[in-house]
Amino acid sequence: MSALTEPEAPVTAVATWRAVCRLDDLVPERGAAALLRREDGTDVQVAVFRLLDDSVHAVSNFDPYSGAHVMSRGIVGTRGEEPTVASPVYKQVFALRSGECLESGGKTSRPGHGVHLEHFAAEVRDGVVHVGLS
Q1: Contact assessment for residue 96 and residue 57, using Cβ atoms and an 8 Å cutoff
Q2: Phi, psi of 72 (to 5 degrees)
Q3: Smallest Cα–Cα separation from 46: which of 95, 104, 123, 117?
Q4: 3-state SS class at 32
Q5: Nearest CA among 66, 57, 65 for reference residue 130
Q6: Which of these, 67, 64, 70, lies nearest to 100 by C-alpha position?
Q7: Which of 57, 55, 25, 19 is nearest to 74 (CA)?
Q8: HSE-up (13 A, CA, CB side) for residue 89
C-alpha cells in the first residue's frame, strides 16, 4: 500500500474524544506530537498545533512524502487565510483545517494533488485540548 493516499471526506462525526494536554502546555505556532489509541485498539500519532488566536488543529504526524512521523516539527504558516504546516523534511505545505497538500515543492517530484494528512477534529474544553478520533 502506498503512503500517498487520496483525500477523505471532511471530519463529520467523532466516535471518541481523547484529552491530549492543557492548552497552556502548547507553545503558539509550534506543534506537539501525541500518541492516541483508537476504539479498535490501534495507535495513531497526531500532530497538534496551537495558533496565535488559541485555535487548535490536529493532523496526522505521518509525513506521506518522507515516510517519517515528523509533522509536529513542521513550520507553521499561512497561505492566504488558511493556516498551514510545512513538512520539516521536504517542505510540502499542508492545510491544517483539512490536511490537504497545498504545495508539493521540495526535493521530490511527486505532485501534491490528491495527497493529504489525516485530519482530526480538535477543540479546547475547560483549558484542555481534546482530539476527536472517528
Answers
A1: yes
A2: -65, -20
A3: 117
A4: strand
A5: 57
A6: 64
A7: 57
A8: 15
| Contact (Cβ atoms closer than 8 angstroms) between residue 83 and residue 95 | yes
**What are the tens digits of pLDDT across the range 88-119?**
999 999 999 999 999 876 555 455 567 899 99
For the whole model, what pTM was predicted? Answer: 0.85
77 Cβ contact list (under 8 Å, min separation 6): 83, 84, 85, 86, 93
β-strands 75-79, 82-86 pairing: antiparallel
Note whether 58 and 122 are within 8 A (CB).
yes
pLDDT in tens, 42-53: 999 999 999 999
Comparing CA positions, the residue from 1, 3, 31 lying closest to residue 115 is 3
Q: For residue 40, count CB atoms less than 10 angstroms from its CB and return exposed for 0-12, middle for 13-18, buried for 19 or more.
A: exposed
- Candidates 129, 126, 120; CA nearest to 55 is 129
Q: Which of 48, 43, 58, 42 is nearest to 25 (CA)?
A: 48
